Amino acid sequence: MRDFLFFSILPCGQQRLAPVVRQPYRAIDLHFKMLLLQNARIDQRQYEAIRQRRTQLFHQVKSQGRPSRSISVHKPDVSIQTDAFQRRRAVMRQQRIRHGKRGIHPVIGCEIYVCENMDDRSAANGMRAMNHLILLCETQEGYQNLTKLVSEGWTRGFYYRPRVDMATLKKYSKGLIASSACLSGKLDRLLLDGNFESACAHAREMESIFGKGHYFVEIMDHDLEDEKRVVPLLVQVSRETGIPLLATNDCHYLRREDADAQEVLMCIQTGKTLDDTNRMRMETRELYVKSEDEMRRVFPEYADAIERTEEVAKRCHVDFVFGETKLPRFPTEAGETSEQMFRRLCEKGLTERYQPVTPEARDRMEYEIGVISKMGYVDYFLIVWDFINYARSHGIVVGPGRGSGAGSIVAYC
Predict the structure, then answer these.
(1) Is 322 helix (H, G, I), strand (E, B) or coil?
(2) What is the pLDDT of residues 25-72, one digit of tens each?
């Protein structure tokens, strides 16, 4: 399950002279890996290299003279979202770039894996049984639902990959826009297997889950044989069901010439060499950031599907508020607040650890409780206490911890 961070570039004051009025194209399916190893952890020096690479991307798409563009950053692909530190920097940058000189409108989304039953971990429900699906956050509620879907996939549905099923999609579908994804999407697979009626039924089911105007039939053409076969069938599904088309280009690198670097990356990732005839490889050199004109040459008869990407991107608005503590509330007994429970546990631990309780110990505890309460971290300490208490009561070894919090008398008690 891969986290997206799309950006749409909107240069101000740009004019286009053309014989017909055209809506711009936004790349809804851009996988920007920054040319780093999948699942690697990056340091500050590597992060700066990523930042420079991303800046090159912004400059390139703006130099194409197009009034809109989208960029996605995926996880588990290595990106500025690799760990919590990088993820927060990415989100903070999302706020700056929205109103910054680059005029970029971020669209948050995720490519997820969908299976029949996320609780089934049998061989029959393995990799082949997982289908891709693109989800974009149209609203704040959609973002909250997407985080729930991703969490469910990693914690409950993980089997080879984080997965969700249709029942879970129905539960958390509000505020999301979905598209049928690539050749690994269920719609494409049904069509390639010759099941046109089943494909139409699946498309209608997806539209019923997300709502009319919130599900799209996605078409791609990277000069692959299967895509040449499936695109006309996808168009037929769209006409049969009335579900609109959405033209996208799957992008894994910045320029066409970067395809060679991508091959080297995959060799490093899989422990192979370029001379290995049996190594995993990309079957096309078309997975780069294409301009609007290039997309129109790819799909000359489907201008509406290209222009629809602009409409979809404009519908997506998610904002992040900073300066507020984002922590779940710890459940307490009726009539007791989290602050009262926190103090009760501290008092109990203090009398057990210190016999007798010295004035120095009590003063330090009172000071620490005051600081923790003022900063709004009472629930955080209760959450940490809860899983550490569970571990110790079940014979699970707990380490000493680190940092100022672990060295506090409150944590000791």
Answers:
(1) coil
(2) 666 555 544 334 443 444 556 556 656 666 666 666 556 554 444 444
Distance between CA 28 and CA 250 in Å, rounded?
8
Question: What is the rounded end-to-end Cα distance, in angstroms, of the chain?
Answer: 40
DSSP string, 245-262: EEE---BSBSSGGGHHHH
In 3D, which of 375, 358, 362, 360 has the Cα closest to residue 410? 362
Q: Where are the beta strands (DSSP E) in 235-344?
A: 245-247
3-state secondary structure of 169: helix
Exposed (0-12), middle (13-18) or buried (19+): which is 53, by Cβ within 10 Å? middle
Range with the poorest average pLDDT among 28-37, 69-78, 195-204, 290-299? 69-78
- Beta strand 176-179 pairing with 131-137: antiparallel
Provide CB contacts within 8 A for 153, sequence distance 6+.
1, 112, 113, 118, 162, 163, 164
Three-state DSSP class for residue 265 = helix
CB 3 within 8 A of CB 73: yes
Token pair in block for residue 76: 């588990």
Tokens 């103090």 label which residue? Answer: 343
Average per-residue pLDDT in the chain?
Answer: 81
pLDDT, position 98: 52
Gap between the Cα atoms of 31 and 252, Å rounded: 5
pLDDT tens sequence across 201-221: 999 999 999 999 999 999 999
Q: Which helix (H) or strand (E) holds 83?
A: none
Distances (CA, A) of 220 to 28, 149, 235, 346: 11, 26, 11, 60
Q: What mean pLDDT comes out for the span 153-167?
A: 94
Cα–Cα distance between 302 and 191 in angstroms, integer? 19
> Residue 113 carries which DSSP code?
E
The alpha carbon of residue 393 and the mean position of all alpha carbons in its chain are separated, in whole angstroms, by 36
* Residue 38 CB-density burial (10 A; 0-12 exposed, 13-18 middle, 19+ buried): middle
| Pairwise CA distance, residues 252 & 250, whole Å | 7
Greater confidence (306 vs 6) lies with: 306
